Here is the input.
Amino acid sequence: SEEYVIPHQNYKSLNLNDYHKIELETIGNRLFLPLSVQVNSEIKIEGRFQLDFGSGGTVTMTSSVANKYKLKEAIYQKVAYFTKYGGVGGASSSFEFLSSSVNIGAFAFDSVVMEFSVDKSGALASNKHLGLLGNGILERFDVLIDFMEPALYLKPNENYQKPFEFSRL
Here is the structure.
């Protein structure tokens, strides 16, 4: 919430009493964590999501997931959008919608504005993970990362109860 990063040589010297630990998986130079998304009353998606501090959204599901669960047809109220600057890969197309809930570790959020990709190539078309966890969720926590173990430590901050809103851009 104070928007800064401090590297520590040894995180064990930090007080972690108020933090919740989530085991991470490292693949290449990327970090992944388990996440559970209740899209609507019929569709629940659980599995490995990439931790993405470059994403301004909450949760973005890949087009592989969108195709598997037929999200384009299953979600009735959604907003399509296109961006020319969708990340490293460039242009990207997605749909924004209001999900029922998102669970990350011991924390649960209701009515989360999230998105699913319809990209045909690039990171958001991957079938190696289910999607991205972005700053729209992470900004609600004080975050510590142990890159050696690897583990993510989360402690709710003053943004925790902030309602999720659709982008006006």
About this structure: The chain has three helices and eleven strands. The radius of gyration is 16 Å. The chain has a mean pLDDT of 89. The longest strand covers residues 92-104.
